[in-house]
Amino acid sequence: MGMKTGAHIVWDWNGTLFHDIDAIIGATNAAFAELGLEPLTLEKYRELYCVPVPRFYERLMGRLPTEAEWQLMDDIFHRYYAEHRVACGLTAGAVELLSGWRSAGRSQSILSMYVHEELVPLVRGFGIEPHFIRVDGRTGPSGGSKAEHMVRHLASLTGVEPGRTVVIGDAADDAVAALHVGARAVLYTGGSHSRVSLEAVGVPVVDTLEEAVAEAERLAA
Predict the structure, then answer these.
(1) What is the pLDDT of residues 67-91, one digit of tens each?
(2) In Å, how far from its chain's centre is CA 42?
(3) Which residues are CB-neighbours of 41 under 8 A, at least 6 positions away?
(4) What percent of the chain has pLDDT over 90?
(5) Cβ neighbours of residue 22 closer than 8 Å, sequence gap 6 or more
């Protein structure tokens, strides 16, 4: 183990470490089909996707879904995703990058908006849990921003300074959450968002996790 450099990475899970975009597109299209909407291609999905999700549906429907439609779509989405998630794996190179960062004596954690009780066994199942000093999923209702969760997450990490912390995620919201706590961010194009929408945020945007970690190293130096 090298000396502690103080640099810390907060990893996002879905669309970042966990390569689940195919399951997500499939689940979205299954939900759309229920309301008679056309299926989306990956490019179209990335171009239009935004949080909160009802606003994304509004872009496609020309109006906000009703409470009943939203409930129906949300249920179908989660049912489809749960079935197809099992075929998804970690993003290429993730395991090597996680163990490399850890063996350099640096720390890392996961903060995800995926339900905590489901996230932990998933991370454990891939055998990567020992690489993280903390794994936090979402507790409470879905649909909010990551910013408040990030405040709690960093507060619970001992000896981690926001100024030496880099959030790596695939969504503009990951960068918003990072800036909210005084951390840096690197955004990865392999998830839900297009490069164009990520570049609008004004933080580094990369196409591989390897580049993301190299960038994190530079930012935390």
Answers:
(1) 999 999 999 999 999 999 999 999 9
(2) 17
(3) none
(4) 82
(5) 84, 88
**Do strands 89-90 and 18-19 pair parallel, antiparallel, or not at all (unpaired)?**
antiparallel
Strand segments (E) across the chain: 8-11, 18-19, 89-90, 107-115, 134-138, 165-169, 184-188, 205-206
> For residues 175 and 189, what is the distance between their CA atoms, to the nearest angstrom?
13
Please, which residues have CB within 8 angstroms of residue 122's CB and are 6 or more apart in sequence? 18, 85
Q: At what angle do helices 21-34 and 67-85 cross, to 10 degrees?
A: 140
pLDDT tens, position by position, 112-167 = 999 999 999 999 999 999 999 999 999 887 767 799 999 999 999 998 999 999 99
pLDDT of residue 52: 79
Q: Locate the DSSP E strands across 27-143.
A: 89-90, 107-115, 134-138
On whether the CB atoms of residues 209 and 161 are closer than 8 A, the answer is no
